[in-house]
Amino acid sequence: MMPLPQISIRSQAGRIGISTESGQYDIRTRPASMQIETTPPAFTADNGSGTLVIDKTLTDNALTGGKPEAFWQRIYSQYQQVARQNLERIVAEGNEAGDLRIKGNVIASQALDEYLEGAPDLQVFGFAAPDNTKLSYTPRDLNMEFIPGSKNVDIRPSKPEIEFRRGSVNVYMQQYPNVTVTAPSINIMA
Fold this sequence. Notes:
The protein is of the alpha+beta class. The protein has a domain at 51-132. The chain is 27% helix and 36% strand. The protein is built from 3 helices and 12 strands. It has helices at 57-64, 68-98, 106-117; strands spanning 8-12, 15-21, 24-28, 33-39, 42-46, 51-55, 134-138, 143-147, 150-156, 161-165, 168-175, 178-182. A two-stranded antiparallel sheet has the order 1-12. It is rod-shaped, with a radius of gyration of 69 Å.
């Protein structure tokens, strides 16, 4: 018997090739713009000059007798006491003159005493003292004012600049499919 001829079939699969290139992002940002305005605080304090009152009335009275009104008031205020002392002296001298037990000339003795004593002692000038001049100082109220400062901040953000470059996808046939059919060789001569 004769062998049967066989057909040979060979196939080769196709292959698809894919190459890709990635996309790219470029992102750029500029710094934000910032503007700051400040007003410094202010502080003022004003108390000005106070009031100084100098009263030297007592000093003037002690040195010069003072104003005429004060001078005569001081003299007149002492006359009541001088009159009372004179009355007491007159009564005492009268009692002495009427006393018969006293030997000698009483009236002459009284006249001599009165002559030697002189005029009544009147205080013409005021009393001298180290604190006759009176000082009075009244300070003014302190006027303080505080004005607070301020701060104004203005920020303007900048938007980012985004740029996208697309990538690519390349699809190609790396190997085409193939079917090979081989017929058997037939020997006709046999």
